[in-house]
Amino acid sequence: MRQKLVVGNWKMVGSLAANLTLLTRIKQAAPALACEIAVCVPFPYLAQARSVLASSPVAWGAQNVSKQPQGAHTGEVAADMLIEFGCRYAIVGHSERRALYGETDDKAARKFAAAARAGITPILCIGETLEERERGVTAEVVSRQLHAVLAQVGVAAFAAAVVAYEPVWAIGTGKTATPAQAQEVHALIRACVAAGSAEVGAALRILYGGSVKPGNAGELFAMPDIDGGLIGGASLVAEDFLAICAAAS
Ligand code: 13P
Q1: What residues are labeled active site?
Q2: pTM value?
Q3: For residues 167 and 208, what is the distance between their CA atoms, to the nearest angstrom?
């Protein structure tokens, strides 16, 4: 039985004051919720997340990680630095990084490997653009993105990883994939991993991301291969994020 997981991706949003209010609300509500909860915050706020969430069931993580070990890489953050700040998770291959910061399948795979080596659970984001969906190549795109990582790290590494299916056209647009559309891709992702190891495929948590809100979370999370959500905008509003967590509980 896979425990549901709801992860907030704050993206590049926050302030010490606003974070404190949000983190405190989540921490207070979390013990009553049956799902696992995590927040992926901007790097400078990891120390704050650790200090507020330390004695709570809520985990925290980063939104990116360097593919390199420590060294001369100005502006990058190494996985073993994230470990020092108690990160359980690191997002890799988010579509915003793929579209705006040149993150390729290969870079995402190397970041996945760097996180995994350090003992951080990578949250690998994959998903098609609107143009790709309209061309009917969603399955090809998603399996290419997934296989790029499988080929580099091997299926066993997915035993300690999370995959997030985030259709690019649903991110921050208010347009959500229907539960059936999302389920179809989630089943495909699970089948790709299960082809390498039935056991790893069956245990893998696959999150849906893209305009998840309190009003649509329940029907998405009810699908057999949707194991929770990666939440952008709604993760910044305590009531909304907690309502989504409640829908996963
Ligand atoms: P929204 O929930 O704002 O659509 O963002 C989704 C996302 O990109 C999470 O990583």
Answers
A1: 94, 166
A2: 0.97
A3: 9
| Residue of 56, 208, 237 whose CA lies nearest to 126 | 208
Tell me, using a 6 A CB cutoff, whether residue 171 lines ligand 1.
yes
pLDDT tens-place string over residues 62-104: 999 999 999 999 999 999 999 999 999 999 999 999 999 999 9
> How far away, in angstroms, is 191 Cα from ligand 1 center?
24
Q: How far is the CA of 180 from the centre of ligand 1 (A)?
A: 19
Listed residue (223, 85, 108) closest to 161, CA to CA: 108
> What is the 84 CA–ligand 1 centroid distance (Å)?
27
Range of the domain at 37: 5-248
CB atoms within 10 A of CB 197: 16
Residue 212: CB atoms within 10 A of its CB come to: 31
- CA-to-CA dists, residue 170 to 35, 177, 222, 224, angstroms: 24, 7, 19, 20
Tell me the CATH number at 232: 3.20.20.70
Nearest CA, atom 9, ligand 1: 232
